[in-house]
Design brief:
Length: about 575
């Protein structure tokens, strides 16, 4: 017994030190991005105030509700090609067409790199876009102190998302996606996982299952997932056990190893006549938004079908537009407002196949949903943002190509090197690399475009992606070149959420030094009450060095939120007491 206690004492001391190191590392990683966003917002608000008649009054306005659209892989070349397709489908040359977001008054470019990757990946980009911190490749809802596939490193690296902030303000929340609801991008709304692939417990390493939950289980059990009002997308397989047959594809079974049926458990957690679960278009159409407060719709075993392949009968699936409007009408009953996230998730998948037809068609399916939302909401009180998580390696090329050239066709000229034709839309890499190119394939929905470098699966693109915004404060908050991690903080400022929850009660401030309102201090978020008015410096734009302690930005922002300090010190004190007690007994 004495030997055991003699071992336990030093072990607990080691665990104490290790835990504190992780907590402080997480705080440092988080502060870099939080503080950079705050300084960026402050600079914009000061500039806007200076333009007023008094030169001191901050711009007024509050976005009671927010709708955030994300086209997965929808880079600039995708937008241009989709715009041309939009026009050509209406009998025009196409180049002169306008997509719904082309008329938005605020436009910015977002940098999509990850902490450890030059070209961004969906889950890490989604963490930046939805949680406000840059993250490591293939991690979800964690700051950069977390390492891929490492459960222990994730415990102190969790960061709240924009859904947390909205729920704290009493807003209804929901999300719609054409991918699995546990997939890389939507997962960042509610989950914290060191691997985007941990969608069910079968994907979590056996040694980590006690300490780290899979993504589907977090959606059911943890905040903010369990409080989300509307969840629509695909991915039934991650919610049921391996002995449960799929209702639409009976030859397939669930993937859970724990024997649980999370769909049934979700229904029990939200018992009552206002709770519904659906898996077909017919069931979905029977939902009356006025009578439903919680809706779970899982319309596919895995991802939902591409829109061009979608079964539109009652046994099929609703469109992205139909899901979006149904979700909107459920959420907007809340007088406090709502936050709705909508993902056109399969743009990315088609690009990976070099299948430009489906990629552009999916982009236009999301464009239709944006138009529908614009007709449904009051833009004087609703902030609408459209962006992408990352780009793809699609290019739009040509040499004196005539106006109106079919967007899926070949260029009007042939190569001056080998005399062979090539498609107007090209990919820098992927399965479209084939020889010879003597005859162009028919430009149908299954055709693939020419690719320069052979790969079985095309890569992402690393260029900046556009951000389009309309609604309260959009023209002030969204412009220029921004880090992707800035976006949720700007949304939170406009909607008075998160650290900006108290802003709307301080709009009468006239002192130029207090234009940025008092910042609240929710748990797990560092404070920046003392903020520099300087624009973002290089240190904030670069990931913190692992070999130095220069990871926190200057200008008075080194001080963390007092509640974070106290929680860290309390943990240190408690663990030290336990360690000392064991050591003394030994």
């Amino acid at each position: 017994m004495r030997l055991r206690r003699a071992i336990l004492g030093p072990a607990l001391v080691f665990l104490t030190i290790h835990t504190i190191v992780l907590v402080l590392a997480g705080d440092q990683e988080r502060n870099v991005w939080y503080d950079a966003a705050i300084r960026n917002i402050e600079s914009r608000i000061r500039a806007a105030a200076a333009a007023t008649s008094t030169g001191t009054s901050p711009p007024a306005g509050e976005a009671r509700s927010v709708v955030l659209f994300v086209g997965d892989g929808m880079g600039t070349s995708t937008l241009t090609a989709a715009r041309i397709l939009f026009g050509q489908r209406r009998g025009n040359t196409g180049e002169e067409a306008e997509l719904a977001w082309d008329i938005f008054p605020a436009v910015a470019l977002a940098r999509t790199y990850n902490i450890d990757a030059q070209v961004g990946e969906s889950s890490a980009c989604a963490t930046a876009l939805l949680c406000g911190v840059k993250a490591n490749y293939e991690t979800v809802g964690l700051d950069a102190s977390a390492k891929f596939d490492n459960c222990l490193s994730s415990k102190t690296a969790r960061v709240p998302s924009i859904v947390d902030w909205a729920q704290e303000r009493g807003k209804s929340t929901g999300f719609v996606t054409t991918t699995r609801v546990t997939h890389a991008t939507p997962a960042a709304l509610y989950a914290h996982a060191p691997s985007r692939y941990w969608e069910d417990d079968g994907k979590v390493p056996s040694a980590a299952r006690v300490s780290c939950k899979d993504i589907a289980k977090q959606l059911l059990e943890d905040e903010p997932g369990r409080n989300i009002n509307v969840i629509l997308g695909g991915g039934r397989r991650h919610f049921v056990s391996k002995v449960t047959q799929d209702p639409e594809e009976p030859d397939k079974e669930g993937r859970r190893l724990d024997g649980r049926n999370l769909i049934t458990e979700w229904m029990k957690n939200h018992q009552g006549p206002t709770t519904k679960y659906v898996y077909s278009k017919e069931q979905f159409e029977d939902i009356d938004p006025a009578r439903v407060d919680h809706l779970l719709g899982l319309f596919a075993y895995s991802h939902m079908d591409f829109d061009v392949d979608r079964n539109t009968t009652g046994t099929g699936d609703p469109s992205l537009t139909e899901m979006t409007i149904k979700a909107l009408r459920i959420l907007k009953k809340n007088p406090n407002g709502y936050f709705l996230f909508v993902e056109g998730g399969r743009i990315d998948h088609a690009h990976h196949y070099n299948n430009a037809y489906r990629a552009l068609d999916e982009t236009l399916a999301m464009e239709e949903a944006v138009r529908a939302v614009m007709a449904e909401v009051d833009l004087t009180e609703t902030l609408l943002v459209v962006t992408a998580d990352h780009s793809h390696v699609l290019t739009l090329g040509g040499l004196a190509t005539l106006r109106g050239n079919p967007i899926f066709g070949s260029d009007s000229k042939k190569s001056d090197v080998d005399g062979k034709p090539y498609t107007t839309l090209l990919y820098s890499n992927g399965p479209g690399h084939t020889e010879p190119r003597s005859v162009m394939r028919e430009a149908g929905k299954d055709s693939i475009q020419t690719a320069g470098v052979p790969r079985t699966w095309a890569t992402h693109g690393g260029e900046d992606v556009p951000v389009f915004a309309i609604g309260p404060l959009a023209n002030i908050l969204f412009s220029g070149s921004i880090d992707q991690s800035y976006i949720p903080h700007a949304i939170a400022y406009a909607a008075c959420m998160g650290r900006h929850a108290s802003r709307c009660s301080h709009e009468s401030a006239t002192n130029n030094d207090t234009i940025i309102a008092a910042i609240s201090c929710p748990s797990a978020e560092p404070n920046s009450a003392a903020i520099s008015s300087d624009v973002m410096n290089d240190q904030a734009r670069n990931p913190p060095s692992k070999s130095s302690n220069n990871g926190v930005v200057s200008g008075g922002s080194n001080s963390k939120c007092w509640c974070t300090d106290i929680s860290s010190l309390s943990l240190l004190y408690l663990l030290l007491l336990i360690s000392l007690s064991f050591s003394s007994v030994s």
